[in-house]
Design a protein that fits this description.
Elements: H1 23-35, H2 41-59, H3 67-90, H4 94-106, H5 112-127, H6 136-152, H7 159-172, H8 176-190, H9 196-209, H10 213-226, H11 233-246, H12 250-261
Helix pairs in contact: 1-2, 2-3, 3-4, 3-5, 4-5, 5-6, 6-7, 7-8, 8-9, 9-10, 9-11, 10-11, 11-12
């Protein structure tokens, strides 16, 4: 068979035009280009929620948005608010974090996620406090909020920190013995927790101010023994030297001060 009689060659398969990226993806890329990766974390969480809801509606196009979808949206919004609040706290925008969480909490049902958000809001409120003594009404409101959370979720990961905030409120008010008792309860109840070195240093400092040298020494020695690499250890060592000096033990006081000098 001649070349002229050969059957026509099959045309190459048609290629599909590239699909345009989803609008949510376009929005995320623009945000990252403008604000950078760190600042886009909260948006990324929100976009993940949006994509999840888009998928749900795509798979169930004729199904009405029932209570379960509304509950999902509320919890997703709360999670988004918590991530945004974490970023705001990191940038020391405490009032904005408080407002963002309050709006989400008021729009959400109860349960563990809301308690997580309330603990985080308490963290923002405490971090944003000015130095010095607070108005009585503000102090009492913070005490009430701490007490309510500790009653509802005493085993929460942030519960030890909340008790430390309560002790600090007492200290600011000049109620040093009440603050001492709260620190003692925190150390006895929770054992090892994030912020233990801070609690031991604060308890030791307070006991030193109250003239309770044995108790002060116990807290400070525990910090130095169990957490020698803590950033609070150098200050704790100096305070321990002060404890020995005020307790009438110049030998150990001199030893501590010499170790610091060396």
């Amino acid at each position: 068979q001649s070349a002229a009689e050969a059957p026509d060659a099959e045309p190459p398969p048609a290629t599909e035009a590239p699909r345009a990226p989803h609008p949510l993806v376009v929005r995320a890329r623009a945000f990252v280009a403008q604000h950078g990766t760190k600042a886009s974390l909260a948006l990324a969480a929100g976009l993940a929620v949006g994509l999840s809801m888009f998928t749900y509606l795509y798979v169930n196009p004729t199904r009405p948005a029932g209570p379960e979808l509304a509950a999902f949206a509320r919890l997703a919004s709360l999670d988004d608010a918590m991530k945004a609040a974490e970023a705001l706290i990191a940038s020391e925008s405490y009032a904005a974090a408080d407002q963002r969480l309050t709006e989400a909490i008021e729009a959400s049902p109860g349960g563990a996620p809301v308690r997580d958000a309330r603990y985080l809001r308490l963290r923002a409120r405490f971090a944003g406090l000015p130095d010095g003594q607070l108005p009585a009404a503000q102090t009492q409101a913070l005490h009430n909020e701490i007490d309510a959370l500790l009653h509802e979720a005493p085993a929460h990961v942030m519960a030890p920190r909340a008790t430390m905030w309560k002790a600090e409120l007492f200290r600011r008010d000049g109620a040093l013995f009440a603050a001492r008792d709260v620190y003692a309860q925190t150390l006895a109840r929770y054992g090892h927790f994030d912020g233990l070195d801070e609690a031991l240093k604060a308890a030791g400092t307070l006991a030193l101010e109250l003239g309770q040298m044995a108790q002060a020494g116990e807290h400070l020695r525990r910090l130095l023994r169990d957490m020698p690499g803590s950033p609070r250890a150098p200050r704790a060592r100096l305070l321990l030297g002060d404890v020995y000096a005020q307790a009438g033990d110049p030998v150990n006081a001199r030893r501590i001060y010499q170790e610091i000098g060396d």
